């Protein structure tokens, strides 16, 4: 029987990535990052799309070469259709359509957020790999999304809770900017927090019903405290940087975990997964492991390579959709915003 080989392409934001999966096993995962955005304190959409145009051909070429396959072995091309930056998505979508047509193989469109969830099913072909069992809860946290997702199958996902304003990653980045830290701020906050006192400062926490999140009030509380302290002492941030980072990190993690605990208890689910760029945060990972010990959760935390945007998660999602004959027609356009 002919092997199923999926080429995955990811271009939703500022990372150009391509990956190859063969019969469910990852063979390659190549990513080109864009450092230019650090100069502007955030991703500049026009610069991102131009960089994708420069990167996509060499990245795809390297993914195919590293996988040790010929392009003629590819069974289908999977690509991120959305959500994301429209200009960036257009580059990946256009390339995927052209490449699939040239190879005369099907197209598979992938929802970027669903792919983050299904990153937990990326197989590297190693013995004793462990994957979540359905149904499970997934906490998806990134710069643009904070969601609790009930996952019933590869194709059946329901958002049971989400942020009503800002995402957790955005809260980290904006608080980091207040402290004068480079973009993206989340990793810098995490690093500095390791040497800080997480109980040094207390910030207001939202009182939101159900399983939904809010981080705008937390950001405002942080900003007001820092402004007031800087008026008293111009060197306040420099003298308290580690404690500020540790305190804001604890607040964000507490908010995330309190709603996740509530959802897991009320939905009677003990299989809980973590996904998205913020899942690289060490305090959040530690909180997951602590909850596993205290509450008997079986937790799934992705390898660092699969936390940020990557094509491996696009390819594995495309693989499951391919097996289901769930293909995409050439007239489908990318989309900037949509839920799972």
Itemize the secondary structure elements and their pairings.
Elements: E1 5-10, E2 16-22, E3 25-32, H1 45-67, E4 76-82, H2 86-103, E5 107-111, H3 112-118, E6 136-141, E7 146-151, E8 157-162, H4 168-178, H5 185-193, H6 216-232, H7 236-266, E9 271-275, H8 282-295, E10 298-300, H9 311-323
Parallel strand pairs: 1-4, 4-5, 6-9, 9-10
Antiparallel strand pairs: 1-2, 2-3, 6-7, 7-8
Helix pairs in contact: 1-2, 3-9, 4-5, 4-6, 4-7, 5-7, 6-7, 7-8
What does this structure look like?
The chain has helices at 45-67, 86-103, 112-118, 168-178, 185-193, 216-232, 236-266, 282-295, 311-323, and strands at residues 5-10, 16-22, 25-32, 76-82, 107-111, 136-141, 146-151, 157-162, 271-275, 298-300. It folds into 2 domains: 5-127 and 306-323, 2-Layer Sandwich (Nucleotidyltransferase, domain 5), CATH 3.30.420; 136-302, Nucleotidyltransferase, domain 5 (2-Layer Sandwich), CATH 3.30.420.40. The two termini are 33 Å apart. The model has no long low-confidence stretch (mean pLDDT 94). The protein is globular, with a radius of gyration of 21 Å. α4 (168-178) packs antiparallel against α7, α5 (185-193) packs across α7 and α6 (216-232) runs antiparallel to α7 (236-266). Helix content is 42%, strand content 17%. β4 (76-82), α2 (86-103) and β5 (107-111) form a beta-alpha-beta unit.
Give a brief rundown of this model.
The chain is built from nine helices and ten strands. The chain is an alpha/beta fold.
């Amino acid at each position: 029987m002919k092997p199923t080989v999926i080429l995955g392409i990811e271009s939703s934001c500022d990372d150009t990535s391509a990956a190859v999966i063969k019969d469910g096993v990852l063979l390659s995962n190549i990513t080109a990052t864009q450092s230019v955005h650090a100069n502007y304190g955030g991703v500049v959409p026009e610069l991102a799309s131009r960089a994708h145009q420069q990167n996509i051909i060499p990245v795809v070429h390297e993914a195919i070469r590293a996988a040790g396959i010929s392009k003629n072995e590819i069974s289908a091309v999977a690509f991120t259709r959305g959500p994301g930056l429209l200009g960036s998505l257009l580059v990946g979508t256009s390339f995927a359509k052209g490449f699939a047509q040239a190879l005369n193989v099907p197209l598979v469109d992938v929802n970027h957020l669903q792919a983050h969830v299904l990153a937990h099913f990326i197989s590297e072909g190693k013995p004793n790999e462990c994957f979540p069992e359905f149904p499970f809860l997934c906490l998806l946290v990134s710069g643009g999304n904070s969601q609790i997702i009930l996952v019933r199958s590869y194709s059946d996902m329901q958002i049971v809770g989400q942020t009503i304003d800002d995402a957790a990653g955005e809260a980290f980045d904006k608080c980091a900017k207040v402290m004068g830290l480079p973009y993206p701020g989340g990793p810098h906050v995490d690093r500095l927090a390791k040497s800080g006192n997480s109980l040094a400062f207390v910030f207001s926490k939202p009182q939101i019903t159900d399983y939904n999140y809010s981080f705008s009030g937390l950001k405002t509380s942080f900003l007001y405290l820092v402004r007031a302290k800087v008026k008293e002492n111009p060197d306040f941030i420099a003298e308290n940087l580690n404690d500020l980072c540790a305190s804001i990190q604890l607040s964000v993690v507490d908010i995330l975990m309190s709603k996740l605990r509530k959802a897991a208890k009320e939905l009677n689910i003990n299989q809980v997964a973590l996904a998205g760029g913020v899942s690289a945060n060490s305090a959040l990972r530690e909180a997951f492991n602590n909850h596993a010990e205290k509450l008997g959760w079986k937790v799934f935390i992705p390898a660092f390579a699969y936390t940020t945007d990557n094509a491996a998660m696009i390819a594995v999602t495309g693989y499951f959709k391919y097996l289901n004959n769930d293909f995409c027609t050439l007239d489908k356009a990318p989309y900037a915003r949509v839920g799972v």
